[in-house]
Design goal:
Length: 117
Amino acid sequence: METSNKIYKLVLTGGPCGGKTTGQARLSSFFESLGWKVYRVPECATVLMSGGVKWQEMNPHMAYMFQCNLIRSMMQLEKTYIDLAQGSSINCLIICDRGTMDASACMYTYMSIQWCT
């Protein structure tokens, strides 16, 4: 389906308490006031961690597999919002609270641990 609307994806990254959530809210309000549809992709790691995942209980292999599944989940969440934006007739902004590069950066740490053991 070809649309004439503009679709932009913005990824917010940074450490805890770095202002990502505040920035996301302000950007949303601004673009919505211009008539854009704004989709906000939640931070996937927080969603998964709230299900009982504890880093201290994972060995390096489990941590690596968690990161792999985290990336898959993030990509699927983003795809969901991209598909919605592509079906829209108005301009859309997709704001991601962290992106796949954040999770993939952690994987290199776990990969190096696995290679050393």
